[in-house]
From TrEMBL:
Residues 242-425 form the Glycosyl transferase family domain. The lineage of its organism: Eukaryota, Fungi, Dikarya, Ascomycota, Pezizomycotina. This is Alpha-1,3/1,6-mannosyltransferase ALG2. Belongs to the glycosyltransferase group 1 family. One of its GO terms (molecular function) is GDP-Man:Man(2)GlcNAc(2)-PP-Dol alpha-1,6-mannosyltransferase activity. Keywords: Endoplasmic reticulum, Glycosyltransferase, Membrane, Transferase, Transmembrane, Transmembrane helix. It holds the Pfam family Glyco_transf_4. Residues 18-86, 140-226 form the Glycosyltransferase subfamily 4-like N-terminal domain.
Amino acid sequence: MSGLAPSNVIIIHPDLGIGGAERLIIDVALALQKRGHRVTIYTSHRDKTHCFEEARDGTLDVRVRGNTIFPAHVFGRFHILMASLRQLHLTASLLTELGSRGNSTAKDKSAPGEEDQDDIFIVDQLPACVPILKSLGRPRKSRRQRILFYCHFPDQLLARRNEGGSLLQLAKLLYRFPFDWFEGWAMSASDRVVANSNFSRGVVHSVFGTEKLGDVDVVYPCVDTSSAVETPTKEPEDALWGGKKIFLSINRFERKKDMGLAIRAYNGLGAGKRKGTRLVVAGGYDNRVQENVQYHQELDNLAKDLGLRTATTKTVVSALSIPDDIDVLFLLSVPTTFKNTLLAQSKLLLYTPINEHFGIVPVEAMLAGLPVLASNTGGPLETVVEGETGWLRDAHAVEEWTAVMDKVLYGMSQKELAKMAAAGKARAEREFSLTAMGDRLEEEISTMLLVERRPFHGWQPVFALLVAICSFLAVLVAFLLRRV
């Protein structure tokens, strides 16, 4: 048990699927739960067939709320509006439950001390609920209440605004404007803001400024080093695909992840040097997400256009039974256990995103003793040490990536690879462990509890914005009616 008294920790996350943000929030919950805090995760969506094991096997208390009134999108549009409305619906349900629980706990004499636990809200990705929690989530007299916002990256920088013609872009600009403003205003209602990397912290400061959010500290995502074990030497018959040398790329099937770079770099090796190798492109895939479906098809077409033989599988059994002449295997929604096997038996991880906010996969690879080749931008600059745990290269220079792959295959001794593997594992355990993240989270919670709540600018700006929007719509309607 740590020095911080147990608190009632409530985590709010939009969608508990499979991805880096979801893995982070699961690890946040595990780190705090292991330290004696009571942790509950509230989410608007969880598919038990498409989430991490801890979110479905009872390890964590996960409650789905806010999913019965508003859809996730409307004809593939208005995602941010629907997500905000779903979170507000979730928050209403949450506050009702907390009120009921508070009343029952006060009457329950069999749970001494629980009514005195502080309420700590941890919100990430979407801050729509933060002003509501700050204004309506009033703590009991015996409790303190604080709100920590974990910022992965400003949402307004993730929105796509350049698609379509000029009129469509103008419409998107007008649609996004209130949400862009609202994001910073809503985040300012939190008592403390943290970021997932120094890179993200710099972006947050540049977008929102320090006056609105105060000091933004860094809490790195983590890997659970307690579950790491030494990988036994595999006999030839136990190795994947008869002992093929595996290049591995793990990411969600999204265009911004640029997994096509891995395919182009692999193709650059040439048929002779590719002999006895295989590129495995694995990661988060959701049939509900149109981009996942489209991008997988684009990647498959890219590989085939380059003359590479491909296969796509959704299960471990089918993945293990693909023909020997397959060059590129697309593995959709890889299970955690098989992902760990891939990390343990691969030769090199290809981490292709540019300006990734943090990127947990390189850390997972280092923990498994797998060297990492990553873009020399964003989070990997803070995780991968050039020449020691891997390599950092320009994502626009495909030939540089191919050269590193060639070096790993033919230019390094087993002793050199083993030294790099040991350095990567040591760095992951030292800097990015579940324990290290738990320490940082408790420091942030303690800091919040030791000072008065941060003042909130209030609701007046929202009312002013609503008046401005209504006035604009009224003028627009009047103009259209006149033209009719």
